[in-house]
Design a protein that fits this description.
Largest sheet: 4 strands, mixed
CATH topology of one domain: Hypothetical protein af1432
Number of strands: 9
Shape: globular
Number of helices: 22
Strand order of the largest sheet: 3-4-7-8
Radius of gyration: 24 Å
Length: 487
Amino acid sequence: MDYFPEDLLGAHTKLIMDPVHGGIPLFPHEVAIIDHPLFQRLRNICQNDILSLVFPGATHSRFLHSIGVMHVGERIFLSMVKSYLESRRYKSQMSTTKEQFFAIDYFNKIIRLACLLHDCGHSSFSHQFTRTSKIKEMMESSGLFEQLWQGIDTHNLYDTAPDIIEHEHYSIRCAHQLLHDTHIEASGINPVDVLAIMETTTAHTSDIFNTHAEHFWQFIAGTEVINWKTSTSAPELVAQLLSSIISGEVDADRADYMLRDGFHSSVTIGGFNLDHLLSNLRFGWDPKTPWLGLAITSKGLSALEDFVYSRNQMYRHVYAHKTALGFDWLLREAINEVLEDHTIETYVRQCLTDLNEFRHLTDNYFWECFRHHARNNPNSYAYCIINREKLKHIDTQFDLTPTEIDTRKQTLATQLNVDHSNVVSCTMNAKFSKIREDFDQMKVLVKDAITHQHQLKLIPEVSTFFNKFTDGTIIHFYLKPKRLTIA
């Protein structure tokens, strides 16, 4: 930690050239993590499962996405630090101390690591893997969490063992292993601080983090720190702030995947001005509540509106594309199909409990399973995936209940004079925006025209734009390929 000024100014050892962000510099400890086999497996996991069957350019991997999120996470944090430094200098407030710079450097590094590792637990075909019925049964089996963490004390990470394991839990397990194997402590970083700001954990931050949090809090709060009394400690508030950069309504993950997915899918609807958005982000601090989080200036609201609107459009026209969702349905059925082979089912179970085998659970593994199955079974889901035989789209509905979906299937089957089992549906739950009503994860920094004082307001109090976005469900209906239909 003796070289923090050089680190903040860019004392990196390697540069990765990214088609979306350009050059992305890496610290030595990040290079060690990226070179680890458990992280390298992400090269063989597509970011958007099999979206490339519809948008041919969308073959990009979780590997480069993870590095991109790391880059965006740092940009979010340091852009807010820079704006705060400029504001303090302009207002002639107290100078920044050495301890505060140490804190900034430390938090920047753990943000980068948490962003880099946020998706390292994804398995074959990303989200479609865990949505497959037989895989869900495996991941909901009793004792899986204990097997996954066998020999490791998890009390400092989880208050109680989770009943259902999601891919985020695997990300924590993989991140724990990667940080341990690369001896991250030698770089002055406590691994628990990285894991504490990632999803699913209830970890308590280290003494190192807590000390830095006190100094960072003084950097943000200034003179208001003296009389501040609350049940929520400074380390807790700072941890919540850092977590929101990694996983929030406006976070590094979404910022990268929207730009990256739009770029590789060759669509323009996922684009938004990241520079404009970042230049208007601030640390929001309200000593009365107390509240510490992300804030956006009034003039930056248009950039936030572009961000939310672009995400809305990506869901509707790319992620929920009727042909793409049809292939997702076929993919899940093909996975279920090959898991009927006892040898494959046993090995996948082993992969889900042993990280040494988990690193082999990539898209490539299942593609080989599909090819082998398809050669011997031409009337199979695997054959359809291998040969890109798509489902025939026949209808689209919105916000139907499960009962209404089944009724609609029966109606369509009757109209088309086919067996009910030949009509299938695929559902996309689209959570377009939470920025409405009492949303307080991000606030607007508003300047009073008379007093020229800044105050924080809830976004819905300043903009009605986000009220038009609601969570919804898109349901596409299809006919199975003829080779799979029942006469």
